[in-house]
Amino acid sequence: MYSMYALFGRTPDASRAPSYRKRHRAAGYAFLILLLLISYLCIDFAVGARVEPSPRASLHMLLAFVVTGLLIVKISFLRLFRQFYDQAKTMGTVIGILTFALVGVSAGYYLAVSRLGLDKTMDRSANYSFRGPLLEVKLTGLPSERIRTDSRSIERGLIMFESRCANCHDAHSARTIIGPGLQRILKNQKLPVSGHPATAESIRFQLKQPAGRMPSFAYLSPDEVDDLIAYLNTL
Ligand code: HEC
Questions:
Q1: Which atom of ligand 1 is nearest to the CA of 202?
Q2: Residue closest by Cα to atom 43 of ligand 1
Q3: Considering only Cβ atoms within 10 Å of each terminal Cβ, which end of the chain, N or C, has fewer?
Q4: For ligand 1, atom 6: residue with the closest CA
Q5: Which pTM value belongs to this model?
Q6: Phi, psi angles (nearest 5°) of residue 149
Q7: How many domains does the chain have?
């Protein structure tokens, strides 16, 4: 934006125009590449998370769509529909301001609530890892996740499993009743249906936002879920 402002809004010095143009074009390509890359990651993230986006995430998405649309129209004005060339200037400014808002509601918000990134518990993206070459987003566990191993937790987990899960899940085989058998559920590499890594965090996620025909268990307390996971870990 600055290079174009300098070019159109200030500089009487025509000799510098090509250099401003060049800078603007380089910044434009960098912007486009970043936009495509980040959009790809965000879409992958949203699909992987299978969650209805929060109000803030919705606003972020809306801004991203508007910025992308404006950018396409602006480039078409510059390359194809030159009669509209003048409007490209205004659009550039609007794209710049909307991008500022776009980054503000997500990265800005994150930096603010996590005290500039120092508070790692805010970083839910720690649940995800990137794998090349297509930068697949996968749920993983929080690195420090500990699973309870004391016999009382396991016993409470067993009782809960019998009453809430056993109708649909066989604990002692991989046979499907309504849901898949859960034998070795946390010892295998991946969960049977979603293919998410077999971690406590993935199970938590499944209980909160289950896929397919499994009902949600979002009402269980974190303590109850920990017991349930302690039991699943013994299978
Ligand atoms: C009404 C039946 C039903 C109940 C009750 C139920 N589930 Fe499920 N569960 C399913 C179905 C169906 C699937 C397969 C989901 C799909 O189609 O993606 C599933 C999948 C799963 C998976 C595999 C998820 C994956 O990502 O592969 C786990 C783990 C699981 N359930 C755990 C539980 C636990 C723990 C409970 C008890 C708190 C429970 N389920 C209760 C039906 C049920």
A1: 26
A2: 214
A3: N
A4: 165
A5: 0.57
A6: -125, 0
A7: 2
